[in-house]
Amino acid sequence: MAVHFMTDPTSLIGELVFDTGPLSHFAEAGWLSVLRSVAGDTPVVIPEVVAGELRRGAGSHQHLQLVLNAPWIQHRVLDSPEEISAYGHFASLLVSGNRNAGEAAVLAYASIHRGTAVIDDRVDRRAAHAAGVSCRGTLALLCDAIRAGLLTLPLVEQLADHLLETHYRLPFPSGGFAEWAAKNDLF
Fold first, then answer.
1. Which InterPro entries does the UniProt entry name for this protein (predicted)?
2. Which of 52, 131, 166, 171 has its CA 20 to 30 A from that of 61?
């Protein structure tokens, strides 16, 4: 399956609905404000399930409190019958034990509210694609921002290296963002 990248971050569909992973790692690496800059005027949302995951980890990982306290990140409860039904659908596909509840909630919210799910796991993105849910990975958002002139390549290279230091799984080693992006024709 080909990965398609937008050319303009302002063309994002609806709200950006973030999963725990990107927010956690950007906060841990000290780059949470970059996500705010990339979002621009597009509202940023986390479902309450994601907020709960962040709260549970905040006691031992202080950077998670930064995400919870960020005034530009709106918390949403999935409580309408449509939201609950969508969550049930995505949970049946993705949730295993205590894993992937946040991703299921992100996809449910984005599907009902016509938002853009921001998730990085390939399986979750496939579920989004199969359901017709707009979905972006964080690297796609960063590449879009470089093309739009919001971020520079050297800045994103440094950011990517810092994300790798937090053990965020990226498809390249430290120092490899520019080569990876060029190889994948992202600029």
1. PIN-like_prokaryotic
2. 171
How do residues 94-104 score in pLDDT, each as one tens digit? 999 989 999 99
* Alpha carbon 129 to its chain's center: 15
End-to-end distance of the chain based on CA atoms, in angstroms?
Answer: 19
d(CA 43, CA 68): 15
Angle between helix 101-113 and helix 48-58 axes, rounded to 10 deg: 150
What is the radius of gyration, based on Cα positions, of the chain?
A: 16
Give the 3-state secondary structure of the chain.
Answer: CCCCCCCCHHHCCCCEEECHHHHHHHHHCCCHHHHHHHHCCCCEEEEHHHHHHHHHHHCCCCHHHHHHHCCCEEEECCCCHHHHHHHHHHHHHHCECCECHHHHHHHHHHHHHCCEEECCCHHHHHHHHHHCCCEECHHHHHHHHHHCCCCCHHHHHHHHHHHHHCCCCCCCCCCCHHHHHHHCCCC
C-alpha triplet 163, 172, 186: angle, nearest 5°:
95
In the chain the domains, ranked by start, together with CATH numbers, are 13-139 (3.40.50.1010)
> For residues 164 and 144, what is the distance between their CA atoms, to the nearest angstrom?
20
